[in-house]
User: What shape does this take?
Amino acid sequence: MTNQDTQYVNDTQEWLVKSVIGLNLCPFAKSVHVKEQIRYTVSQATTVEALLEDLAQELEHLAETSAEKTDTTLLIHPHVLQDFMDYNEFLDLADGLLEQLDLDGQLQIASFHPQYQFAGTEVDDITNFTNRSPYPTLHILREDSLDKAVEAFPEADAIFETNIATMQKLGIEGWKKLFK
Assistant: This one.
């Protein structure tokens, strides 16, 4: 791993700890973080095609690895899909790859991006920040692990609403203070 790759991973881990875990945006993240079951991979891809190849490799790796060793993967891709709209369109290709590899129903892909924007929101709406990572990142999750986490967290349906309230209370200035 290059020094720059190490920086991408460190920035992503800081974001995960301070926002995703620190603000409890995902109540399931702390456990896999503490158990060191998150695989961080930095893609050198500069094209969509190369990123799809890296994604295929990571999907297959996670499918072939025990959940106890690696429960989830964050594929950080800082050199491609910097524009959110391009990234958002890529997600259809990513889902198609899951089907092509016959891994849909076993794995799923969540999306994070520095410019993340939910449909129907303004660019600077604080609720978008729940999915704003330092770099474009594909989060590969195991369906089984997600099902177990939801079973253990009886109010899983309320996570989205809780996140909105948390972010609105925090505000843009509070978000900026997290990362000073």
In short: DSSP finds six helices and four strands in the chain. The radius of gyration is 16 Å.
